[in-house]
Amino acid sequence: MLSALQRSLGVHRVLEPIGVLPQAARRLDPDPQLGPDEVRIAVRRLNLDAASYRQLSEAHAGDGAAVRAAVLGIVESRGKMHNPVTGSGGMLIGVVDEVGPESPLGLEPGQRVATLVSLTLTPLQITDGLAGWDGRSEQVPATGTAVLFSRSIAAVLPDDLPEEVALAVLDVCGAPAATERVVHRSGHRPSVAVLGAAGKSGCLSLAAARDARAGRLTGVVRDGREADALRAAGLADVVVVADATDPLAVAEAVGEPVDVTVVCVDVPGAEHGAVLATADGGTVVFFSMATSFSAAALGAEGMAADVTMLVGNGYTPGHAALAMDLYRRSPGVRSLIDPRVRA
Ligand code: NAP
């Protein structure tokens, strides 16, 4: 017999290995039949986490049909979209289909919602073979069902934003919230560098740092095209080009080490550059799902760097509203996010 806590976390849906939490499970039961405390979502669109999509796309040399087959294979075998290589998922939007009588989430049938819990722990069934997706974008039109537990979180979608924009912004809404919190806690106007600053989480983090009254803002981007876009967006005081996976290049490009570094790239190997770019006593926020804990910890030790390193928690109270607000208020954020999500 499972405890109320176990049920609220979805342990009853774990098929393998029995007893672990859904995020750690190899396989979940995605049966659309609901328990009394669950909610069923009719899925409309998945947003694959950027690190997961990049890994799948690179593993299949950009062959869209093969990427689609890989995603279908993962969901079929695991009962959730949990990339076994990156360990990451994403999130989804859909319409509330049925609400169990004991669900505490306050949702009602017919509401359009985004799930703010990871796809790595969300029971998911796909019923259309992802026929509407060419395998060439993070956003995946999909038909199927997903299940929320009583401790899951979901946001009702705003009416004023297109679904694909809301999905993209909500997927990374933990990044600006984490940045705001760290800037507030870092004392007087800390300098901030963002790696991957022209990406979705990167530009939102810059905007959040500005709002939180950070000092000098440095955006580190991959190439000249991204540098031009970020300069035009006006979100950073300084824009520099460096390969985030080249530690010395990052340190040289950032120059005077900063108080706070936020890692928003979607590739592995950014740990050492982020540590080198950060002043002693400073903080690195690793929002990227491609981060290696051991590379970060051992790299900092090896460089005798006295920095605090934070795992970018995808959840902070109020994170969804904060990110939506930044998107609505900042033309610079919109200029960087819209081309990534709106064809
Ligand atoms: P995104 O929009 O694709 O942005 C990533 C940015 O990094 C892009 O501008 C990309 O440039 C740039 N980049 C890639 N390789 C680089 C390199 N070697 N040097 C410099 N820049 C480089 O991704 P996102 O949606 O913001 O996601 C960013 C990260 O957050 C991902 O790792 C994702 O997994 C993670 N994430 C974490 C959470 C959480 O809860 N912690 C939730 C969601 C997502 P190009 O576009 O030119 O490649």
What can you see in these coordinates?
With 343 residues, the chain is α/β, with parallel strands linked by helices. It has 2 domains: 154 residues, no CATH class; 169 residues, Medium-chain alcohol dehydrogenases, catalytic domain (Quinone Oxidoreductase, Chain A, domain 1), CATH 3.90.180.10. Helices cover 35% and strands 22% of the residues. It is built from 12 helices and 14 strands. The strands form 3 sheets. A 6-stranded antiparallel beta sheet has the order 6-7-3-4-5-8. It has a 6-stranded parallel beta sheet with strand order 11-10-9-12-13-14, with helices on both faces. Strands 1-2 form a two-stranded antiparallel sheet. Helix 10 links the parallel strand 13 and strand 14. Helix 5 crosses helix 11. The longest helix is centred in the N-terminal third of the chain and has 15 residues. The radius of gyration is 20 Å and the shape is globular. The N and C termini lie far apart (49 Å). The mean pLDDT is 96. The site of NADP nicotinamide-adenine-dinucleotide phosphate (NAP) has 30 residues, from helix 2 and helix 6. InterPro entries: GroES-like_sf, KDD_N, NAD(P)-bd_dom_sf. It comes from Modestobacter italicus (strain DSM 44449 / CECT 9708 / BC 501). Pfam families: KDD_N.
